Amino acid sequence: MKNKDRPGTGEGAEGRPEGQRPPVLTVGISIAVVVLGVVLFVAGFLTHSLLDDDDDLGSIEEDLAALTEQVGEIQGILGGAVGDGASPTPAPVVAASADDDPVIGPEDAPVTIIEFSDYQ
Fold first, then answer.
1. 42 domain-assigned
2. What does the DSSP 8-state code read for residue 17?
3. What are residue 11's DSSP bridge partners?
4. Would the pLDDT of 5 be above 60?
């Protein structure tokens, strides 16, 4: 008695285990996957080459030169308005008293900040 004649052996009508594809179908799927991969690779390569064309940069360089010239003119105009580059006059020292007001930090700190506010 052969295996295909015995019930429950798990073989199909063609003598293959159940769920196994015929070899021709498996090879056909493998070839289709490889061909699809090659087609996608070539399509990506062509798309990249179309999008990565070296444009004529002459017009962009001319625009950049014109903008550089305009920036130089603006800096020349603003050069006289800004001043001679000397440091600004220091703020005047104001004597203020923090007699019995709450204080945070050491009493001999180099900077004292006094806040005047209205809590209405």
1. yes
2. B
3. 17
4. no
CA distance readout (Å), 13 to 33, 36, 43, 69, 89: 28, 33, 43, 86, 102
| Element housing 89 (H / E) | none
Backbone angles phi, psi at 97, to 5 degrees: -110, 135
Give the mean model confidence (pLDDT) for residues 90-103: 77
Which residues, 6 or more positions from 114, have their beta carbon under 8 angstroms from its beta carbon?
96, 98, 101
Number of domains, the chain: 1
The amino acid sitting at 24 is V
pLDDT at 83: 57
Q: What is the pLDDT of residues 26-80, one digit of tens each?
A: 788 888 999 999 999 999 988 887 777 666 777 888 999 999 999 988 888 887 6
Does residue 39 fall inside a structural domain?
A: yes
Expressed as residue numbers, the domain containing 45 is 22-50
Q: Are 18 and 11 in contact (CB under 8 A)?
A: yes
